[in-house]
Amino acid sequence: MNSYEDWFAYDTYRPHQKEMLDFAAECVNKQQTCLIDAPTGSGKSSVLSALLAQANGRNIIVAVRTVAQLNIFIRELELIKRKQPRLKVSYLVGKRKMCMMGGEGDVYRMCEGLKTFSTSLMRERAQKGSLIPANDAVIKKQIQLQDYEHPLLCQYFIRSKIYAETGDGLKMMPSNVLKTKAEQTTRRIVPPDKIHELCGDICPYEVMLQASRDADVILMNFHHLFNEDIREQMYQSIGIEPDNVILLIDEAHNCGDTVQSIQTVTLNEQSLELAQSELGHLRGSVSGTEAIQNLIPQVLNFMVSLKRSMKAEDWFDPAIFMRYILSGTLYQKTEEIVEDLLTINEAIHEAKLEKGDFRESAVEKLTEFFVRILKSAGDESYLTIYKKSGEEISLEVRNIDPSKTLIDLAKAHHSAVLISGTLSPVDAYKKIYFGDMDAATISLPNAFPKENRKLFCARDATSAFSMRRDIENSNRIIEYINTFATQKGNLAVYFPSYDMLKTFTERLPKTLKGKEIFIESQDSSASTNDLRTFMSLPSVGRSGIIFGVCGGKWSEGLDYRGDLLNGAIVVGLPLAPFNDVRKMVNDYFRMKFGKDGEFLSYTLPAVNKATQALGRVIRTPEDKGVLLLIESRYLDESVKRGLPKWMQDECVECTIDSFKEAMKRS
Max alpha carbon distance in the chain (Å)? Predict the structure, then answer.
């Protein structure tokens, strides 16, 4: 194997870092899929050095979930380039962040439409001898005259292209300006917040696409990788084959949720009514329109019948649904409905593009729903669900098992490395992601000094549903929080749900033990502003307590280094609400994995949310903090096994009295 030391960006190795790099290099060399559980402090972004050493001309694609994670890998690659200046790097983040055009609607649809119209006009002018579209007087005039609220042409895309005469006729090619700027981005990595400045009047996305065609390492977001249609289109655009790609997937504990969200489709009453209106404009002009119009009342009637249910969420039988829908129409089978919907959807899509309307149509949502119903027939990894909110009913085809997508993805590529700071127990994630497929695993110890952290678990308090009305239990939870609040510096308290957060915080004063209080809002803007204020307190000699939710905006993906956070509590076990749908999911995984099924599908995600929240505190070897689990169930072996090994080993069982004594001594 080639040496990763030629690519390793640092003078020394952290504890267990070489073990991680050796493991990753060996797996890539063997064309394997592997999972790496690398706690904070392991230097997990350095795994790139092992992959680069084994690349041998292959592309490396790094999939990240957030811009913050993207920037971490950009910094790592900048350091690597100091040793290997010829390394070429590109990234493809969402068009929403890159697009410089105005207009309404979905930016991806808008981009597709603008490129289609722009290409058509550019080709027409090129056929008349105008090979440089940006200099063409007719095109310039059309750009000046267009409605910028509903544009049809993209001047940034137009400036990025030229035409050339070839043996096969006219061919659209990257402009010299585009190629120059793409080369600049691979020669020195330009962060996302600077890309508009570099690109000027050239489309940033086209610049990064061009850069990716020549890049050794390409960074992209989860959606680009896990959405099969987007991935195939992107690979084709940048000219790479999956079997020549080494995958590195960061924050891999989120893979399952991402795949499930992509493959889940929801249909509500409002979208059906809008679809009916859209179809009214096509009646008589597109085949099948009238038949689909007659079908929609059947779907609405089915929804109305569900309003009598007392449940907020439950399963509906897709076979009964389709029999009911077909009974009131001339259709004989679902395939016929889907065929008509696809034809109608294409007609609506083209009509909207011509008007510069790039919003998703309601008929498109209806089409997606019936396509998914058809594809999921007989596939137990999908559930058909109805959800009731007040008098509103929605129907959903929900993916509950991401393994097929993840197995297909891994097998299509040369090798795949999945890494996370909370991929524990790693063999459990291997099982739920890849089933019986061959995949290697490694779990690294916590590299930070043990003496810098204190981990407690209360055995005299719980958030179990049976105890939520128990006054003594609730008062004890409050007593734990009040005792914890005596600790110096910024602190955090996380609850299993927004409902429980509200229950325990609605009577809180503005300060607690002299600390300012911040309660996580479900409004994104408000929560961002509050968090910014909270994190600024240590710099002015003050401190606060944030009260948030496990799995919420304040508990994952944030780096509270140094004095920004000195301790955290997780109240309870953040299990998903248990209902008939949840029972069906658990039963599916019990059938698949036996007695481990419920742990893998239900308990493990809850434990992971808790460890993610506690993981906000100790982010560097110098950080110190107190961690507290106010939940006796973490002491049960059936739950405890989901905690990282270091937490299992270090956890001190406590009561409120022994916790008070420990806090006095700290």
Answer: 87
* 265-399 is classed CATH 1.10.10.410: no
- CA 545 – CA 556 distance, rounded (Å): 17
Structurally, at CATH architecture level, domain 450-665 sits in: 3-Layer(aba) Sandwich (3.40)
- pTM of the predicted protein model: 0.90
Classify domain 1-87+216-260+402-447 at the CATH superfamily level: P-loop containing nucleotide triphosphate hydrolases (3.40.50.300)
Sign of torsion, CA 397 264 440 598? Answer: negative
User: Same CATH fold, 265-399 and 1-87+216-260+402-447?
Assistant: no
pLDDT along the chain (666 residues), means of 10: 86 93 96 94 92 96 89 93 94 80 71 86 92 93 85 90 88 92 88 88 92 94 92 92 97 94 94 91 84 93 92 92 90 93 88 71 92 88 93 94 96 97 93 96 90 94 90 94 93 94 88 91 88 92 94 78 87 93 96 95 95 84 90 96 94 96 87
> Which amino acid is located at 371 in the chain?
V
Beta strands 161-166 and 169-174: pairing type?
Answer: antiparallel
Domain segments of the chain: what residues? Answer: 1-87+216-260+402-447, 97-212, 265-399, 450-665
Q: Give the burial string for 527-543 (b: 16+ CB within 10 Å, else e).
A: beebbeebbebbeeeeb
CA distance 252 to 34: 11
